[in-house]
Predict the structure.
Amino acid sequence: MDTQVFVCTHKLFHQPEESMYHPLQVGHALHEDLGYETDDVGENISKKNDTFCELTGLYWIWKNVACDIVGISHYRRYFFQGDHLITKPEVEELLRDHDVILSGVQLNNGKSVLEDYAFHHNRED
């Protein structure tokens, strides 16, 4: 099965050894080349990265990649299965019975999402 997880990035990083992970430089139309696959070839919105963030990469994947299973690691944030980076066989096994893989619950020190957002950002936003 053709399974690819694109690791959205705008900086150099240590790449996972698992073959399904592919670095994708987002916002390449606006920034210096890092030597990775880029989101400004084919149909793309790379120039909008300053306001659309990793969505320029997601758009590029949608318009330019054909594979059985596709995913993204949002700015080098990975899924773990127990104590290790999730592998291609684990992804494929999970998706036999589920439509999507999402992260688990994130604890916000007992705060609601609104309270946590307001603490870290402008509450009026």
